[in-house]
Amino acid sequence: MTELNIGFLTSHGGSNMQAVIDACKNGVLQAKPCVVISNNSGSMALERARAEGIPHYHLSQKAYPQAEVLDQQIVASLNKHGVNIVLLLGYMKKLGPLVLREFSGRILNIHPSLLPKYGGQGMYGRFVHEAVLSAGDEVTGISIHLVDEEYDTGAIVNQCTLPVFKDDTVDSLSARVLEAEHEFLVETLVMMSRGAM
Predict the structure, then answer these.
(1) Rounded to 5 degrees, what are φ and ψ at 40?
(2) What residues are paired with 173 via a beta bridge?
(3) Omega of the bond prior to 116 within 30 degrees of 0, cis?
(4) Smallest Cα–Cα separation from 119: which of 172, 155, 163?
């Protein structure tokens, strides 16, 4: 069994992050939440990190206007805390080349559709669910994939499907997918920690 030392990159609420932290605390997942990095100083994710006693940093272009310096700071923070896997959970910025190189094959993103459908730049959150409903899809889902230089193009690690109901709205579909993400993300990390994927 490989202990996962997790670094979280997130921009907003951090509910998926909290699901992982809770799974670590209750023994479902053999992993250690090591550090939280957010590009949004007012994010709920940073509040969650404070409440859990997890080291946390606000690293953004506001603090580090030069992209390469920000890239270096993110890598330094991840390495300082012994991270061996990086989770992008609602992180709304493209990663720099240094982070991508340093953690190649060890950066995961969660996306609220069955990639390659409804992926790419600008396709996140409500925009994904709007596209699913507009297309009249009867099935949607969740994709966990490796991160590379482009948006949502890395190798898919795991996927699950969810039904789209006839009376679904963007809000109802969004809420149902997000709730499923919490469980699916933890399940995937458990399988990884056991060497099953």
Answers:
(1) -120, 110
(2) none
(3) yes
(4) 155
| Residue 18 is assigned to a structural domain of this protein | yes
pLDDT of residue 63: 87
The answer to the question of residue 64 being in a domain is yes
Amino acid 100: pLDDT:
97
Cα(57)–Cα(75) distance, integer angstroms: 12
Residues pairing with 143 in the sheet: 111, 159
Domain assignment present for residue 121? The answer is no
Distances (CA, A) of 189 to 2, 24, 38, 72, 172: 11, 10, 21, 27, 26
Tokens of 134: 């507009």
CATH number at residue 73: 3.40.50.170
CA distance 152 to 149: 9
> Which are the contacts of 187, defined by CB distance < 8 A and separation ≥ 6?
none
Could you give the number of structural domains in the chain?
1
Single out the residue of 110, 109, 169 nearest to residue 141, CA to CA. 110
DSSP letter assigned to residue 66: S
User: Structure tokens of 119?
Assistant: 């992926």
Distance CA 87, CA 97 (A): 16
Positions marked catalytic: 111
Mean pLDDT (10-residue bins), the chain, 197 residues: 88 95 96 97 96 97 93 98 96 93 97 96 94 97 96 95 97 97 97 85
With respect to residue 173, please indicate whether it lies within any of the assigned structural domains: no
DSSP per-residue string spanning 146-162: E--SSTT-SPEEEEEEE
